[in-house]
Amino acid sequence: MKKIIQTDKAPAPVGPYNQAIIHSGTLYISGQIALDPATGELVTGDIEAETRRVMENLRAILAEADLTFEDVIKCSIFVSDMNNYGRINEVYATYFDEATAPARELVEVANLPKFVNIEISAIAAFD
């Protein structure tokens, strides 16, 4: 049986999906973009600010499920420009302990929702 996770501290879904689902001891978080949940506005300006907003959205969803970034086992990162790889990594690295960081891929794509520069989804596990 699946359990829906929903928090107003992260952007509301804009389609037929949920922020996250728990199933069989695993939390599956939908892709998050740099939408500020308080204002509904996109965070723009630089890739660091966008990445930070995405990570904070992920943090809010993890917290709603009583988890933290320590519980994340996999992230999928989609970017519009691979030239931002290093700048994204600088921000992303502040959310994880390098020794226990999750598995991950980072791929460049042609477009993302709302034409943002980054989207991240995550999978976390309950002990």
From TrEMBL:
One of its GO terms (molecular function) is deaminase activity. It comes from the Bacteria. GO terms for cellular component: cytosol. InterPro entries: RidA, RutC-like_sf, YjgF/YER057c/UK114. Belongs to the RutC family. This is DfrA. It comes from Phaeodactylibacter xiamenensis.
